[in-house]
Design brief:
158 residues, alpha+beta, 3-stranded antiparallel β-sheet, 5 helices
Amino acid sequence: MVLRSGVEVLVHDTVIVSAASYPEAQETVGFLRSSGMSRESLAIVGAELVLTERPRASTAGLAAKSAGTGLALGLLAAVFVTLVADTNLSGLAVVLWGIVYGVLVGGLIGLGRGLVHNRPEAVFTELLPARYEVRATAADASVARALLDQQNPLSKAA
């Protein structure tokens, strides 16, 4: 299919296999590539797109995730302070206080984010394919089908 000179078609026109998940489609393409087909002649395309809506993460979940991040940052800051600064506290005490402050600050930041971003009308929308198609160029479609028929001889009997 030629649209005009210098423009190439990005999506191949012949459907070889329809798969329920992307990993299944990848497995099929991997088999075809290991059998000698070129990468340029194969494509995985999402089909039957569906708009899905789901609520955002819970406020408690955001607070807990941010507290975990705060713990890691507080620990790093405390280790840095024990190595560089001269304090009256022992190294273990500085590390423990760094962890405590990191969890507190991280949890409060996560709680604030959760309260601001989790309004009742705020939903996360995604456009997801219901299935994935493995497509090939018209010239290579018969070769791909023959390779897949050799791999699955039971599919012909069904």
